[in-house]
Amino acid sequence: MIPENLDELRGKAREFALREFTEEKIRKYEEEEKYPEEIRRKAFEAGFLDMSNPWGMLVAMEEFCRVDPGLGISALSAAFGSEVIMLFGSDYLKKKYLEPVLKGEKISGFAVTEPSAGSDVAGIRSRLERRGKGYVLNGEKIFITNGTVANHFYVLARSSPPPSPEKRHHGMTMVVVESSWPGFEAEQMKGKLGMRATSTAHLKFRDVEVPEENVIGEEGKGFYYVMTFFDISRIHVATQALGIAQGALDMFTEYIINNGLNNRETYQFALADMATRVHAARLLTYDAADRLFKFAPDPVKTSMAKYFAGETAVYVTDLALKYTGMQGVTSKLEKFYRDAKIEEIWEGTNEVEKLVISRMLLKKR
Question: What are the helix and strand counts (H, E) for the chain?
Fold first, then answer.
């Protein structure tokens, strides 16, 4: 059930974003492709990074991305991946790695994607091998959020060969790896299409020694932990996309009013189309979020929300640019157009989401 104080939470988040995400800061972090640490700290101090208040975090992400997607995601993704520790980690791991993140003292990252394995998680090549009382990790990860700023990462690697081609997802283990350990290297990925204020990196692990106590949950169950995490993270991605779409809708509405196009039928139709899609995306996202926050996630609803919201963000920004022409491509709308595209890709492409939806619906039959 959506909480009664949601509008109050939304108002606070929007007020913060409008105050802190100034045009000067947006331009600075976009051009320098620099992580906005000062904004992250302010967002934490203001109480927006509070995992005990999931609805508050959801509307904060929506309203932050409505003002600027890059700064919004950076400000609220400092605990990225920490849900795997909350759900499957030992008390030792929670105390050592989760608590500092929840206190705003540390930043975490989630390292699964590899150069040869994106949507196909079971195709990863990173290796976690037993050595003495611990493990040695070798491999690479790419497009990792918080890659150059995280203090530690939740890393998925293969710890044993799959028993058969049909069970490639078996034999994978998740471990916590600190960025200060010997053998770890992070290289900032620059020149991205959008979201340039977020830290995205190529990670390399060369004979990184991992103590046994840093294994998350059970050895060999890592794939299942990642899939559980996706049921959570895809809600957040849908919310990011929803914020982008709403922000583009805001800008298009202002364009119509400022240029006296209120009575032009083509613009009215475009506005109605955009607004309807944004509203539908919000309903899908909130429905999936409500199920998740009641500890009863529905992967079908989650995938519907993620793919449709991402598609809506791209559709709305694209249509807005077509109708605003030169004025649009030289305005903030141009940045939203670039930022929107990744919402159809990360945490599972639209095609992957559609496969999840269709397979699970057929399975139920």
Answer: 13, 8
Mean pLDDT along residues 271-292 = 97
- In the 8-state DSSP scheme, what is residue 94? I
| Whether this model's pTM surpasses 0.85 | yes
pLDDT given for residue 166 in this prediction: 83
Residues listed for the chain: 365
Whether 166 sits among the annotated catalytic residues: the reply is no
Task: Sort strands 200-211 and 152-158 into parallel, antiparallel or unpaired.
Answer: unpaired
Q: Using one digit for the tens of pLDDT, what is the confidence trace for 297-333?
A: 999 999 999 999 999 999 999 999 999 999 999 999 9
Say whether 184 sits in a helix, a strand or coil.
Answer: strand
pLDDT surpasses 90 at 134? yes
Conformation bin of residue 150: beta by default, left when phi > 0, alpha when psi is -120 to 50: beta
- Among the options 33, 83, 219, 347, which is catalytic? 347
Domains and CATH numbers, the chain: 6-76 (no CATH), 106-220 (2.40.110.10), 224-364 (1.20.140.10)
